[in-house]
Request: fold
Amino acid sequence: MPYRTRAQSKSSLFSVFSKAGMGRRVVLLTAALLIGAGAHAGTSNVLQVVHARREHFKRLGRTAKSLRDQIGRSRPNWNLVVSDTNEIERLAQDLPNWFPAGSGQARGIKTKARAIIWSKPQEFARAAHRLSNSAAILAQAASRHDLAGVRLRARAVGQACGSCHHRFRSHSNWW
Amino acid sequence: MSDKSVESRRVRVWDAPTRLAHWAIASLFGFCWWSAKSDHMQWHRIAGYGLLGVVLFRLCWGFLGGSTARFANFVRSPIATWRYASKLFARDRDRSSKPIGHNPLGGWSILAMLGLLLAQTVFGLFSVDVDGVVSGPWAKWVRFETGRRFAHLHDANFHLLLILIGLHLSAITFYRLARKESLVPAMIHGYKTDVSTEAPPSFVPWWRAALLAAAVCLVVVYITQAKL
Reply:
């Protein structure tokens, strides 16, 4: 954990400098630099999490579009429909892991994820469960090659996505 | 120019289809703006189809409509436009030089406006939202990433349109305040006063507009229902 490393580094350096009898200003300056570096490392970790989350959602969006393109046809490519619905189910189950604590909006971090995700975790978990549940039913309908069922269940997944975004995501779904 | 030709009298300048198209574009643009901001995407899509239809109608009307609606009569050469623009602030304005329809600057502004609006609706047809759930009817022909690019073009072009609309409104205000010409009432009732009547505008029968509107409706329905 970067925070633990930072704290340990700080205390050990203070003791080293005091033993060596270095000037107080040098110690403070060094400590400030290390804290800054630690904070930067923390921010860059969060940035990585946010970037990964964005990529996951892009994948979800790409797969959802591919599925919609297929089920808009009278004779869809069922191989694609099945693989897309399986992918959506997998991503939906994984979704709660994309929101670790501390990956919300902060200085230097731009994310559409609202703070309510972490302030009301049970509500978020329920919304995520609704999505994974409807995605699983969608995948089942796809495995039966039931086009009417897939269309109906895809709409349910879309509603689960929409209601969650309405509550837990800031900004429009276009930008 | 004879005195008779510039006498102050009401002259019909804009035909009903031109006026209707103008106000339909203005209201549909406003509605599209609101529906996009408030995430009423179903309404946004329907209004976008309507806007596409009106823009297509106006473009065709620029070849088939009355004399003041035709591009050939109001899109002037850059030199003529510059000549007009250089006299825009002149104090000793000649009444007879006041154009009956669109002035040369306005003509280019209309071309730009219709071009950007057409581009805007076409970008919308291919646009995909970030979730891959809401999209235009032609988005099925492009990849997700391409659809997203179209969505960003849709957004960028919207801001260009806002700038152009700002210029349009500023020009109307300028003509009202600096040149004492009210352009808005003429676009409502179709008549202007205090203009040269040497060559009064000519108009075409209403059924031509009705036939064109029906044809455009069919085209828009075809566009929105396009199958793979």
About this structure: Chain B has one domain: 14-224. Helices of chain B lie at 16-37, 41-64, 71-74, 78-86, 104-126, 144-177, 184-189, 206-224. The interface with chain A takes residues 36-37, 39, 127-135, 139-140, 144-145, 147, 151-152, 155, 228 of chain B (CB under 8 Å).
